[in-house]
Write a structure and sequence with these properties.
There is one protein chain. With 194 residues, the protein is an alpha+beta fold. Helices cover 34% and strands 32% of the residues. It is built from 7 helices and 9 strands. A hairpin with a 2-residue loop joins strand 7 and strand 8. Helix 6 runs antiparallel to helix 7. The protein is globular and about 45 Å long.
């Protein structure tokens, strides 16, 4: 008897006040803070101010990443200019479906490519975040000029910048999925934005 493979439903929903505390806890995890531009702990007051500012800013979109109805991370976008979205993400939970980081990358490109008038997706990665740098290269992001960074734990770093021409994504999507493990391509069919 054959078993039917189950793939997670990846649902991205706008952040609401109900999940503010959970996102605050995620943002303060050392592994997440380490890869952010500012790695200092975030106070509850700072987090509430951030959320209040987010509510009134139409140029920013912040989604909670649900996997099979369980919140596991975030995906966010900022409108840099009329034609360019910047994006960022993180997984707040450890015990997630293998490949969830790749699903975030696919979801970011799918979402950005679906936005009217948006032609580029822009990303910044701290140069010591090797796994994300590798992932961006695999997906075909084009490198741009590095920005000055700083020092973290006695390690000097720069900010690597990338852009993705979104007109290329519909054609590149299947080629990228073909390079990835088959289960990622299958799970990518279950990405949705609510």
């Amino acid at each position: 008897m054959s078993t039917v493979k189950q793939y997670p439903i990846s649902d991205f929903r706008p952040l609401t006040e109900a999940h503010l505390e959970q996102v605050w806890q995620w943002r303060n995890q050392p592994d997440i803070r380490r890869n952010m531009h500012k790695d200092a702990p975030i106070s509850w007051h700072e987090h509430l101010t951030w959320f209040d500012n987010l509510q009134g800013d139409l140029s920013r979109r912040f989604f909670l990443f649900y996997q099979n109805r369980r919140p596991i991370g975030v995906l966010n976008f900022s409108q840099l200019n009329q034609q360019t979205l910047e994006w960022g993400c993180y997984l707040g939970e450890d015990n997630v479906w293998p490949g969830s980081g790749l699903l975030l990358e696919i979801a970011a490109l799918d979402y950005a490519a679906s936005q009217s008038g948006v032609h580029r997706l822009y990303a910044e990665v701290l140069s010591f975040n090797l796994s994300v740098l590798k992932m961006h290269r695999l997906f075909g992001y084009l490198p741009m000029e590095d920005k000055p960074g700083g020092t973290r734990g006695n390690i000097e770093y720069v900010v690597n910048t990338f852009h993705y021409p979104l007109a290329n994504w519909p054609e590149n999507r299947s080629a990228v999925l073909h390079k990835l493990p088959k289960q990622i391509g299958a799970a990518a069919q279950y990405i949705q934005f609510s």
